[in-house]
Amino acid sequence: MRVAIVGSGPAGLSAAARAAELGMSHVLLEKTDHLSDTIYKYQKGKHVMATPSNLVLRSPLDFDAGKREVILDTWDQQMADQKVTVRLNAEVAAIEGETGNFTLNLKSGDTIAAEAVVLAIGTQGNPNVLRVPGADLPHIQYQLDDPTEYVDEHITVIGSGDAGIENALGLAADKMQGNVVTILNRGAEFARAKSANVKLLEEAEADGRISVRRDTTPAEVRPGEMVLDTRDGQETIPCDRIIARTGSQPPRAFVEAAGIDFTSEDRGAFPQLSPSFETTKNGIHVIGALAGYPLIKHCMNQGYDAIEFLNGNLDLKPADEPILAAKFNALPGRKSVEEWLETFRSQVVILQELSPLQMRELMLDSDVHAFGPGDVVFTRNDSGSSMFAIAEGSVAVEVNPDDTDFTVPIEQGSIFGEVGLISGRRRGATVRAAEPTVVMELSRQAALKLLATSPSANRAVNRISVERQLLQLFGSGLNPADVADLVDQSEVVNVRAGETVINEGADDKDIFIVRRGSMIVEKDLGGHPVFLSYLPAGSYFGEMAVIDGSKRTASVKAAIKSEVIRLPGDAFNALLDAKPELREKAMGDMAGRREINDFVESRKASFGGAVDMYSQTAQFLVDNGLGEATDVLLIDEKLCVGCDNCEKACADSHDGLSRLDREAGKTYAHLHVPTSCRHCEHPHCMADCPPNAIKRGPDGEVFIDDTCIGCGNCQRNCPYGVIRMDARPPKKPGLLSWLLFGAGPGPGEANYSWRKKKAEAEGKETPKVAIKCDMCSGVTGGPACVRACPTGAAIRVSPEKFLSVARLEDID
User: Fold this and answer.
1) Topology annotation, domain 3-125+249-319
2) pLDDT single digits (tens) 459-493
3) pLDDT over threshold 70, residue 760
4) CA distance 194 to 204
5) What is the SS3 assignment for 24?
6) Would you call the peptide bond into 674 cis, given omega within 30 degrees of 0 as the criterion?
7) Interval 581-604: pLDDT, tens
8) Where do the structural domains in the chain lie, given as residue ranges?
9) Residue 249: closest CA among 260, 238, 239, 262
10) pTM of the model
11) Where are the alpha helices (DSSP H) in 29-124?
């Protein structure tokens, strides 16, 4: 027999149908009693998408977007019509032999002889299982066949890829079923899912049919309930059933036993493949999900192409060739698509472990650019959340806006723009090409998907970002070679809200950098934790015990769900020994922290209730958003006279639309936190903004631009209630129109109220848009609410400046 095809998913079906069409001797082996187990296991009634829409389909089988049942019936009929040789209930246990003479041993004891083998087995049979306490309880399932079977249950779906989203939508489709459906997403983005599915999920969330929990992971499963790790700590919710759709892994042992090598040792790695899908075992080809291509149309094209290659059509180009060729036309030289793909893959560090197939898929969602020496890639304060990878040449980063001659180079193979990708901030520097340069620009969605699905790419980006954070934090003339050993030994650690990173009195010797989130530093006095300071992202801690060998003098815990970079103390001390100027800087920082500790110790007998009051006040502020804030409005109730000048000034600065409600919010002692934006380090509101209308300004302000479509996602995602939806009324007529024709309100009148009434009187629809504080960006003098306060009661500060132990002096 010429070819044995293992697995009857879309890729295997297409390969077998093409072999039958060519008259090539073949057999399609399927371990179940039906074809296309991949689609068969989709939930009943599922709408199957045919993406990407601009990709032609090469296959004797038809495929258009439609219901699961229709697609299965169509394929069953067409496979019968084309007289494809199929063996059901034929599970392959092992593959032996060499190209031209393979033997496939079936679990039934039968053997199949074939000159070549096409593996299209997918990964669905190896789901990732939950690894939390209670994961063995019977109400956890890894498959959803028919969502209509479940009624009046609290159901939690774990996993925010396409399968998880579609399961959640199916369970919540009919309100008469009475299900309370929650879906957990460990991040803020839905990087693995198709945009159409994300849109449907957002609509279901807006309608109240599904509760979407972002930045949330399972902590423990119990009968009838589930414990969650959220940004702000643990929470318990009712849970009668769990649908875990957390991905799957290739059947690695089976594949490696056939002599096939993988790209790496990572659990999620894929087999090494040539452009013709041939593995490191000559004669065995891999297609479909096992090759890293999960989309149905891609899989079907691969099945067709694999048979064409086996039939001698070695000049066949992939179906996406014209699309990629058009992208590369803008680049210099006359390289082919394959040559350019290999250039990017081999030269860019984060892409080096991707297969040719993965490179093609990534490139479809990315752009390429060529720059001449001095050409600007992007400018400081530009908006943008894409990431760039340098395939040829290098760029110069203008880190000092006042001295454009001072630049930092980024060489070929590295990346830049990752800060905008991770934080959503505006570009922090101007970047120019230092020489003829070719770069790949990964869209935000493409970059996040790459990091979520490729462990090697994620590791490489982590390494680069850790290195740059070290150089930025410690400075003192360091270069990448100086910190290479420290970076190699570093570890990125996720920390739950409230989890302790350092314990007072402990004898460990690591140093930590706050990568995301924030930390609280506390000291035990008489059995009570006393708040010392707040550490925002970008701070480092733990250096005192590392440098002088002492025990920990305070405890450090996460204010919210955070990430820290752990650096071994020995490696850090080695760096200090090699760089005396760095040791001097560290000693200076350490002296400041020692002074704080000594100050607290010296007054612990006299503080009494004042210390306790301070700690409670600090904890109140953290609980109300300072744990993730970069700028927050606080009002001292002892000084506030209730004049409302702050609200009026806010309205006057924003076309009559105030962003502040002074009376709303919470108060502890004399400190009030009104409903005004905290400008979070990693804003909740930025998650799932369809037009990307929410951006970060050069001074850290989070603002909403004119592209807002009024979907309300930001309002729903903000945990502090500081965003509202309000009508966008017609423009106010100018002063001349008022003077000559009496049109519009006069000077000093409430223009917003007039405009809204005018629109209502004319029967015009006034679409709503999102309204929030933008820190009076572009207004001279800074926030109007602070400038308008006659008593100094209103202040806007970063939390690390407000939550300082120096405040203890005020309560002494």
Assistant:
1) FAD/NAD(P)-binding domain (3.50.50)
2) 888 888 888 888 877 765 678 888 889 999 999 89
3) no
4) 16
5) coil
6) no
7) 887 777 777 776 666 666 556 655
8) 3-125+249-319, 140-244, 330-453, 485-603, 619-728+767-811
9) 262
10) 0.69
11) 37-40, 68-81
